[in-house]
Amino acid sequence: MAQPRKQSRVRGAELVGRGWLNTGGRRLDLESLRGKVAILDFWTFCCINCLHVLDELRPLEEKYGDALVIIGVHSPKFEHERDPKALAAAVERYGVEHPVLDDPDLETWDAYAARAWPTLVVLDPEGYAVSTMAGEGHAEALDAIIGELVATHTARGTLDPEGSPYVAAPPAETTLRFPGKAIELPGGDVLVSDSARHRLVRLASDLETVVSVIGTGERGRADGAEAQFNEPQGLALLPAEVAAEVGYDLVVADTVNHLLRGVRLADGAVTTVAGTGKQWRMDNGTSAALEADLSSPWDLAWFEGRLVVAMAGIHQLWYFDPRARTAGVYAGTTVESLKDGTLDQVWMAQPSGLAAAGDRLWLVDSETSALRYVEDGAMRTAVGQGLFDFGHVDGPAADALMQHPLGLAVLPDGRIAVADTYNGALRAYDPETATVATLAAGLAEPSDVIVLGGKVFVVESAAHRLTAPDLGEAAVSGQHHRVTRKRTKVAPGALRLEVLFEPAAGQKLDYTFGSPIQVTVSADPPQLLAEGAGKGEELGRDLVLADGIGKGVLQVVAQAATCDAEAEHPACHLTRQDWGVPIEIAEDGVSTLRLVLRD
């Protein structure tokens, strides 16, 4: 097994960017962090893995108090994420309670040689980089490193455990706060997932009057009449006969709790119906809904006699059968990319919105900026070109582009309305003509679409409201954006790929379910790789780059299963990361590409 490189004692690079959030206007530098253990969290707010890391860091912030400073370094992927107002909204939306550096030009990203979202860099109280980690699932390793640094620098007298650079923004007063999804209830009321306030809000048909609230509004997990949610998103009503049988009327995707929750509308009682509350790390071999680990369920739709769940955290669709109380994989392999085919072979990237229409299940695949559908046991793409292409372009579907869409609905005339979130637009795809048009623009991060009495409404998330935009039909020929990051020069022909991994202290590789290592390699364009694409169980692999293609992106998905080495009842862990590595073929390029999964 390839071993990680030993890091020399290197001072951290300065923190350079456009500005700071959560500091009360103060600009921070390495000198201002002296005396603290610091974690630089390189993130982008579109990335579900980055959102997982935010939740992994919360307990560490609480445990170590002011001895630990987390600095979010926001290095954007999508064009919309470069907007400072959009970043400020995301910091509030996701409850980020530490300073954030706005790094729109990826200056600090490049200075720390980050290759993937998320990347974590630990700095000691003297400003030296002591560890770098890519991906999620590092909570235990971080805890051990921080604990050791706190002990060492307390003994040296170089730790300052008092005072924090974090300054909370003043709370806002709006009826809703970053609502996510909405559904119409029997009788005409509308239920909205009030995501940033961790509750569900029932609105009257005027979409302003609050009829009732489900949930205390505090981030948490509790069933019953005083229920708690954690950033809930999707909502789905059950058919009346199913609801009568199971005792609840609708299901909520309780996203950050990694749960599905059932709600009885008569009294607002909430019960957990699927999930353990643990984030999915690997298949545990059960189909019992309450024993299955989920990962950031984002939306739901009734299709083929059961609920289909957009499992954004692992790039899959799952099913949930309320009557049989079972749950499991419906489509996808967990590889983050765009590939059509039979449901067990397709690749997705953060599916975030679902809508059923007859024999078709429509979905928006946010990270590939794609509109896709399931029919006859296969998935096909209607609009979208891949992980790295996005924009605002109408016309023939093969050329049309969107930017990180999160919601959709089927219109009465059969067209598919898409909440094109990062374009701030409502788009329409016509299956008859295979064309895309813009129906409305200038919206504030629309996250869902709902049709009420034949009229189209949008959940305008960053404006904290539901609104009925003035609809027109226009052909927008905007820019085609492609994610561009610093390219790694690689030599033509043979290329050795090495994923460097070492289990965290106190852990060992876990062979319970077979090989603990899985590495999947693909390329954009696919023709870039002459040999070496596909899935394997080794950390190292020999690739061959095709002749005649000068540049592209190598997509690598690596995961390693570990367990506690000495514990009587060992806990299991899964470390996972997706890389999109831009490469350029050059005679003076490297012949070995090393990616660090944990260091």
TrEMBL record:
The keyword Ubl conjugation does not apply. InterPro entries: 6-blade_b-propeller_TolB-like, NHL2_NHL_rpt_dom, NHL_repeat, Thioredoxin-like_fold, Thioredoxin-like_sf, Thioredoxin_domain. Keywords: Repeat. Residues 1-151 form the Thioredoxin domain. SUPFAM superfamilies: NHL repeat, Thioredoxin-like. The keyword Metal-binding does not apply. PROSITE patterns: NHL (PS51125), THIOREDOXIN_2 (PS51352). NHL repeats lie at residues 403-432. This is NHL domain-containing thioredoxin family protein.
